[in-house]
From TrEMBL:
Keywords: Membrane, Transmembrane, Transmembrane helix. GO terms for cellular component: membrane. Pfam families: ABC2_membrane. Residues 22-215 form the ABC-2 type transporter transmembrane domain. The chain crosses the membrane at residues 58-78, 84-103, 110-128, 140-163, 170-190, 224-247. It comes from the Bacteria. This is ABC-2 type transporter transmembrane domain-containing protein. One of its GO terms (molecular function) is ABC-type transporter activity. The lineage of its organism: Bacteria, Bacillati, Actinomycetota, Actinomycetes, Pseudonocardiales. InterPro entries: ABC2_TM, Nod_factor_ABC_transporter. It is found in: Membrane. It is a multi-pass membrane protein.
């Protein structure tokens, strides 16, 4: 466990150096964050055009949480890029599970997503006259972090499936977070979809966590809120287990056929 944590720390530190070389606080705030805030505002304005305060609240809260999923699923690009650059063999040689190394590489992006979603939650509801129960709502960023971790595990699973096809990484990334935004109650209730599709949605991240956040903001019981967050944790753990199996299988195949040292 000590080696696992040490490798995770170093992988995260290396990823942060890479991330901070790409983004300064100015570029992050005025390009990436502003883009995410504008996206959330765009959907909230649709609700205002419909003339419904309930629609404004539904669309705004859903998209405030969804902006986090975009950053969380960027792990698809980061892990596949390691394969594309031919550095996978070095990661597998680390004195820890290659899964730990991979996941550590994307943690700065997960933190970025949680920060962006939290800023959006603090800044946008007053702009659209959406009522938020203060100071109780200060726990919402913690709920967003739970949803973010679940989405991150989902993104890692997708990455493990496309490691052998680096050219498909952008398609996989876009389909990953668009699937969440479409079916997990961001812009339309899950009940909008057919029953069989709603049942499939229950295995996707964000569906239960977003439902818990909505219930909390609507004054729901703590049992309902904590139940939703508990299901979100279970869903994230399941995706993590599938990701671990996928990475292990890919590495075993690379060792067997001698392709582990080559980007493909």
């Amino acid at each position: 466990m000590r080696d696992q944590l040490r490798v995770l720390r170093h992988a995260t530190a290396a990823a942060w150096v890479q991330y901070s070389a790409y983004h300064t606080w100015r570029t992050w705030a005025f390009t990436w964050l502003s883009r995410l805030l504008i996206q959330a505002c765009f959907y909230a304005l649709i609700g205002r055009m419909l003339g419904s305060a309930d629609q404004v609240e539904f669309l705004l809260i859903g998209n405030v949480v969804a902006v986090m999923a975009i950053d969380a699923t960027v792990v698809v690009l980061l892990t596949v890029t390691e394969r594309h650059l031919g550095t996978l063999a070095l990661m597998v040689a680390a004195p820890a599970s290659h899964l730990v190394t991979y996941l550590g590489r994307g943690l700065p992006n997960l933190a970025s997503g949680i920060a962006a979603s939290t800023i959006a939650f603090l800044a946008l509801p007053p702009l659209f006259d959406v009522p938020v129960p203060w100071p109780q709502a200060l726990v919402v960023p913690l709920m967003i972090a739970v949803v973010g971790a679940s989405c991150y595990c989902y993104g890692a699973c997708v990455a493990s499936l496309v490691l052998g096809f680096p050219s498909a990484r952008w398609v996989a990334l876009n389909l990953s977070y668009l699937t969440l935004m479409t079916f997990c109650g961001v812009n339309v209730p899950i009940s909008f979809w057919p029953d069989w599709l709603g049942a499939l949605t229950s295995v996707l991240p964000m569906a239960h966590g977003l439902g818990a956040i909505r219930a909390f903001l609507d004054g729901g019981t703590w049992s309902a809120v904590l139940g939703g967050l508990g299901l979100e944790v279970c869903v994230g753990a399941a995706w993590f287990a599938v990701a671990a199996y996928g990475f292990r299988r890919m590495v075993a195949k690379g060792r067997a056929d001698g392709t582990i040292e080559f980007g493909v």
